[in-house]
Design a protein that fits this description.
single chain, mainly alpha, disordered N terminus
Length: 394
């Protein structure tokens, strides 16, 4: 019999610890040492992003001031007629608040992405999305709060279930990161610039965090949320296609109604009217009839152009991808108008054709590339919506 330390011999017999070790098929102290090493191991998957986040705060708060001043002088060398100077503690406090506000928008979008992950996986298979907490799909254990936290939960568990230790699909992490990034980029481009990308919109005179977020411009915030939810819903379709699922039409029409309905209550959200681009005078004022006509024209054009281009898609695109292509047409047309839907689908279709040949032997990759190309074109159009509308005479 192998000589064991006294501490190990003392644990032999009826001790519960030794019985549990014996049941696991372990022999001797080396297993205990391995357990201790595992407990003391640092989770670099979580620590590294946190360190990068702190380093980003340092760059933005201290060197970023000089960098921004240099960019302003390069962009506009003429001196300003007035300027606001802050002392160093005040400047650092304000820039810290701005940095945290930016992170809040990212995390808010990641939370929306976490919920849409659940919708994309449950609704197509007939499961509820309101009642019943999140559970591991393998061991059915209810996940704790830290496990459900967007981005941090996946990194905390190192991409595995905390109970059965089976791998969690990386699409959950990437969906949260992508949607969070969409919310953050739209915040920079649309919200704190006072709507600089919106056509037929009077850009606010005073822009920035202080004048658009901390002193809320609710109409602009409503437009921002509507457009951010549009792109988040489109990314949700990609998640369903990754699982080989087809998102139900009834549920999708519910998303369309919820996201498009603010246009009927906040009529100035009609940035491009149904008559723009047509030989019709714009003498009539903005009204419920005008906004309703714009919404119906957008839904009709979005559904028509998506259905037409869907017929001309390569044959190796899967059926769920074709359904999601048509569903995206309804959403884009209803939110952005028939003019934007026409431009986005035509450009997206032509942009996808050369890419489709590389995936003709892999239908799933061809479908995901189709939806990713469409979302990229739609997002790029939205970033420069004002300039594009001006070029085509809207």
């Amino acid at each position: 019999m192998t000589d064991l330390p006294k501490s190990w011999n003392a644990l032999n017999g009826t001790n519960a610890f030794s019985q549990s070790v014996a049941l696991e098929g372990d022999v001797g102290p080396p297993r205990i040492r391995r357990r201790r090493k595992r407990i003391l191991r640092i989770n670099w998957m979580l620590i590294a992003p946190l360190l990068l986040w702190v380093f980003g705060w340092y760059l933005y708060t201290y060197p970023g001031v000089a960098w921004e001043e240099g960019l302003r002088k390069w962009w506009n060398p003429k001196p300003k007629t007035w300027s606001t100077t802050w002392s160093s503690p005040q400047r650092e406090l304000i820039r810290t608040i701005q940095y945290l506000a930016t992170f809040w928008f990212f995390y808010f979008g990641a939370s929306i992405g976490s919920f849409l992950n659940v919708v994309a996986g449950r609704w197509p298979v007939g499961k509820g999305i309101v009642f019943g907490g999140s559970k591991c799909p393998y061991c059915a254990n209810r996940l704790r709060f830290i496990h459900n936290t967007p981005v941090i939960g996946w990194l905390w568990c190192k991409g595995r279930c905390a109970f059965c230790h089976l791998p969690i699909a990386t699409r959950y992490l990437w969906m949260e990161v992508i949607i969070g990034s969409i919310f953050m980029v739209l915040m920079f481009r649309e919200l704190i610039t006072g709507g600089a990308n919106l056509p037929n919109w009077r850009v606010e005179s005073f822009v920035g965090f202080e004048n658009t977020i901390f002193s809320p411009k609710w109409l602009l915030i409503t437009a921002y949320l509507q457009h951010a939810m549009l792109f988040a819903s489109l990314v949700m379709l990609v998640s369903s296609s990754m699982e080989g699922l087809r998102f139900p039409w009834l549920g999708w029409f519910g998303f369309v109604v919820i996201i498009c309905s603010p246009k009927l209550f906040y009529m100035p959200l009609e940035f491009v009217r149904w008559s723009d681009g047509l030989a019709i005078a714009r003498s009539f004022p903005i009204s419920f009839l005008s906004t309703g006509s714009t919404l119906l024209a957008g839904l009709g054009m979005g559904g028509a152009v998506a259905g037409l281009t869907c017929v001309m898609l390569p044959k190796w695109v899967t059926s769920d991808g074709r359904t999601h292509w048509r569903q995206a047409g309804w959403m884009v047309g209803g939110v952005l108008g028939w003019q934007a839907a026409l431009v986005i689908f035509v450009v997206g279709w032509f942009a996808y054709l050369p890419l489709s040949m590389a995936f003709r032997h892999n239908p799933r990759a061809a479908t995901l590339t189709l939806l990713a190309t469409f979302i990229t074109v739609a997002f790029g159009h939205h970033m420069f919506w004002r300039e594009i509308a001006s070029m085509i005479g809207l």
